[in-house]
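Appendix C reproduces, verbatim, an entry submitted by the partner laboratory led by Prof. M.T., so that reviewers can inspect both the input and the predicted structure.
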Amino acid sequence: MSQRIMHGDIVVRRLDGPPEPGFDCGHEEQNTFLYRYAWTDQQQQLSVTYRYYVHGIFAGFAALAMDGLALSFRERGVHIRYETVGALKLGQLGVDRRFQGRGLGEVIVADVATLAREFALQVGCRYIAIDARPGLERWYEALSFKRNKLMQERLRQFAMEKNRDPDRLATSMRFDIRS
C-alpha cells in the first residue's frame, strides 16, 4: 500500500471554472457531478466544490451546500428543541482511484468538519449531513457519523411512493460538529 496522505501533502482550491480532465474516482455518479454539474451549480450558488491536490495532482473533491436536517426527538435529545437543525451538506465526495486507500477521504471529511465549525460561529450549523452511497455506511460510521432514522424513513416512504426500490437508497447520516 502506498504512503498515507497527510495535510502537508495537500493544496485545496475552490473550483474557479470547469474542472480539468483526468479525474476518475471509479463511481459514475461522482464523476458526472464533477464534470457536468459542479461548475454550473457553483455559479448558481447551489453548492461550492473544493479540489484537493496531492503533490500537484488533482486527487479529490468535495461539494458543499447548506442543509436542514430533520431529526426525531430521540435523535436530537432534550437540548435541541427544533425538529430541523442546520447542517453543512457534504453533497459529493470523490477520491481519484490513484489515491484511494491512502487516507485522503478522511482528510477531506476533517476539512469539512473544520469548515462547519467555522460556519457555526456565524450561523446555526450543528451537523455535517451526508447521503452515504450503499456500502459506505461503515466507513462513515468509523469517522463518527450516525444514521438519521427519521430522514431515512422519509426517504424510504418517498421511494415507495415513486415505485423505486427502497433498498437501493443512499443512507442519510450526520456528524455532530461539537464532538
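Helices lie at 28-43, 73-76, 104-119, 137-142, 149-161. Additional entries are available on request from the coordinating office.
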